[in-house]
Amino acid sequence: MKPLIYYAHSAQDKLGNLLPYELWQTLQSHSVNVGEMAAEFTQVFGAQEIAYQTGQLHDLGKYSEAFDHRLHGGLSVDHTTAGAKIAKMLAL
Q: HD Cas3-type domain: which residues (predicted)?
């Protein structure tokens, strides 16, 4: 069975048509990239660890069927609250 892949961002051509999935950014890749960038930006004041963790959590709500529908032209959905709730629960 092929593993389920979640996406953070779709890719479109200049006319707004969806391009093949191979050109979309996976949610796993996006979360790691954002965590790394957040850690780099906060290095100057020593907050790399918390920035990395919260950067990875920021789009946690994209792991949902509703967000997958959004990437295919569906209605906008809240994808940020889930990560904020987890961060609060973990006392980040």
A: 20-92
Domain range spanning residue 70?
A: 26-89
What is the value of pTM for the model shown? 0.84
The secondary structure element, H or E, covering residue 54 is helix 48-57
Number of domains in the chain: 1
Within a domain: residue 39? yes
Which residue is it, tokens 């950067």? 55
> Which residues are 7's β-sheet partners?
26
> Tens digits of per-residue pLDDT, 44-63?
999 999 999 999 999 999 99
Q: Classify residue 84 as exposed, middle or buried by CB count within 10 Å of its CB (0-12, 13-18, 19+).
A: middle
Ramachandran assignment for 8, one of left (phi > 0), alpha (psi -120 to 50 degrees), beta (any other)? alpha
What DSSP element (H or E) covers 8?
strand 7-9
